[in-house]
Predict the 3D structure of the following.
Amino acid sequence: MGRVRSLFIKRAARNFIEGHPGKFTTEFEKNRRILDELVPSLSKPNRNRIAGYISTLLQQQKEE
């Protein structure tokens, strides 16, 4: 069983993907750096959670 993500994390990740199409990848490290450039004031734990969820969403889209 996976971890449950809060609605804030899910909404933020979807907004970033829609707002910056083609910028994010399925790699967590790259997404983390991109988020750091886009929103430097974002806390470290939230940045990592959002980057991880973006990676997960893009991997799911890739499989379809």
In short: The chain has a mean pLDDT of 94. The two ends are 22 Å apart (CA to CA). Helices lie at 7-19, 28-38, 44-63.
